[in-house]
Amino acid sequence: MSQQQEHIDKINNMSQLEMANLWRNAPSGHIYFDTSLPYHNVFNERFKVLGGFTPAITKKVGWN
């Protein structure tokens, strides 16, 4: 399995809360948010399907 497919599989197995935490707390330049890489679209589509940021998720994630 390629490294790219491993990342895509990891994204597809993340929960809504895990995705929200990563979105909120990922270091600058994280590969899942680099628009020049395919992970950006995979992440956004999966997060959207799961419901994205809801008030409840936002409260669970909080602010650092």
Q: Which descriptors apply to this entry?
A:
64 residues, mainly alpha, 4 helices, 0% strand, globular
Give the SSE string.
HHHH
Structural class: mainly alpha
Helical residue percent band:
55-70%
By DSSP, the count of extended strands is 0
Regarding quaternary structure, how should these chains be classified?
single chain
Which segments are poorly predicted (pLDDT under 50) over 5 or more consecutive residues? none
What composes the largest sheet?
none
Tally of distinct domains: 1
- Mean pLDDT over all positions: 94
Which word captures the global form?
A: globular
Distance between the termini: 35 Å
How much strand? under 5%
Number of helices: 4
Q: From the alpha-carbon coordinates, what is the Rg to the nearest angstrom?
A: 12 Å
